[in-house]
Amino acid sequence: MTIEIVTPDTTIFTGECTLVQLPGLDGSFEIMNNHAPLISVLKKGKIKVEDRQKQVQFFEVNGGVVEVLKNKILVLAE
């Protein structure tokens, strides 16, 4: 699946991933391949992105919105 993390100013990250962990308002949650469609609000925290080689990257956000649809994750971050 692919993920794109964008802010009003720039694209922070675009790439392939196998697992994404996000800071939801009611607690963190994970998205894996073939996840059901989803729209959720994010709070301040870290986004964890794991790729196929099990390498992990973290991205700090101050909140935002995430949309999951057809194995594509779009994060509109503050």
Q: What can you tell me about this protein's structure?
A:
This protein is mainly β. The chain has one domain (2-77): F0F1 ATP synthase delta/epsilon subunit, N-terminal (ATP Synthase, domain 1), CATH 2.60.15.10. Helices cover 0% and strands 72% of the residues. It contains no helices and seven strands. It has strands at 2-6, 11-16, 19-24, 27-32, 38-50, 56-69, 72-77. It has a seven-stranded mixed sheet with strand order 2-1-7-6-5-3-4, with no helix packed on it. Strand 5 (38-50) and strand 6 (56-69) form a beta hairpin.
CATH class, named: Mainly Beta
Fourth-level CATH superfamily: F0F1 ATP synthase delta/epsilon subunit, N-terminal
Termini gap? 23 Å
Portion of residues within helices: under 10%
Rough outline? globular
In DSSP terms, counting alpha (H) and pi (I) runs of 4 or more, how many helices? Answer: 0
What's the rounded overall pLDDT mean? 95
Percent of residues in beta strands: over 45%
- Rg over C-alpha atoms, rounded to the nearest angstrom: 11 Å
* CATH architectural group: Sandwich
What strand order characterises the main sheet? Answer: 2-1-7-6-5-3-4
- What's the count of strands? 7
Instruction: Return residue spans where pLDDT drops below 50 for at least 5 consecutive residues.
Output: none
Briefly note the CATH topology name: ATP Synthase, domain 1
Task: Supply the number of structural domains.
Answer: 1
